[in-house]
Amino acid sequence: MSMVDPWPRALAEAWHPIAYAREIGARPVARMLMDRPVVVWRSADSLSVLEDRCPHRNVPLSGGRIEAGVLSCPYHGWEFGGDGQLLRVPGSSECPTAAARAFPVIERAGLIWTSFAAEPAPFPELPAAIGDPTRDCFWWRVDSSKARIADAIENILDPMHSYFVHPGFVRASRKPIPMDLELRIDGQGCEARYTEARETMTWLQRFAEGDRVCSNNRYLAPSITEVEFVSTKGVTITITTVLSPEAGDRTRPYAHFAMRKGWVPGWIKRLALTMFLIPILKQDRAALRAQAQNVERFGETAYTMGPIDYFGPMIWRLLNGEPQPVETRHLRIVG
């Protein structure tokens, strides 16, 4: 399926983050979700998410002002409540029946979430690592980038591209080294456990993690991934990413980090980790951008599944709400 087709069903009906809670203050915030502009703001009662256009003359409401918990349009000053209903027309004592379309909104784990589903499902249980009080946790704010969401999910889960895209950062060399993989897939997602030789790690990873025992990659359909590193002392770090589809070729990642507490202050670990990840993020974005641009050039996706492409077909099935049988495999990636 191409991302120019209608949005995959599971993705279209899901809850998606559209902003960090700390971003929503005195001004409305414009966002995109699945090719639809929305505006996020705090009304007199609570948070609100509206379609980002005034029903009067279609001017973006995100350019307006918030006063006394009311959002006014920047063009003619029409005023709207948190439910999108028109409250007042400046210069007139009359108020026609009109409204900006409103969407459900939930504030959870430091993020603002919404859904375009006609009847939204109950909000899902988030991974336990998010906000774990026993660990040093933080959200890493990064901008959206040109990337198709299915490709971005696969990029996070895929172990092989790191040898060619991230040599010296994630892998010690460009030459793949044998690793064992235990893979379990079901109707909710997958978990892949990698056991690999220490020499695959860079010197910085060895210093930060110590003796790594394994790494766990998880996918929770439709749009959450988790990468976890485990040493002889237990889990060292868990990176949970919620991927929000802004457009068919644009994705915004909300990345959460949970690190084992220790003598090093959390802010130092945060600084060191983000400095390490900045070049890795830049490399991944370049690869995903080139991929998306080439799909546009040719006007189609034409993916050939290779012998170690374990995740692509599973991701597409789960994004589209198709049945995914339980599969358990023990695999060997050769050097």
Can you describe this structure?
- Helices cover 20% and strands 35% of the residues.
- With 335 residues, the protein is α+β, with helices and mostly antiparallel strands.
- The strands form four sheets. Strands 12, 13, 14, 15, 16, 17, 18, 19 and 20 form a nine-stranded antiparallel beta sheet that branches. A four-stranded antiparallel beta sheet has the order 2-3-4-9, with no helix packed on it. Strands 5-6-7-8 form a four-stranded antiparallel beta sheet, with no helix packed on it.
- A hairpin with a 2-residue loop joins strand 14 (179-186) and strand 15 (189-196).
- Helix 2 (149-157) crosses helix 6 (312-319).
- The two termini are 32 Å apart.
- 30% of the residues are buried.
- Residues 1-5 have low confidence and may be disordered.
Secondary-structure-based class equals alpha+beta
Q: Mean pLDDT, as a whole number?
A: 88
Biggest sheet overview: 9 strands, antiparallel
Detail the poorly predicted runs: 1-5
Count of helical stretches = 6
Gyration radius, rounded: 22 Å
Q: Quick one: how many beta strands?
A: 20
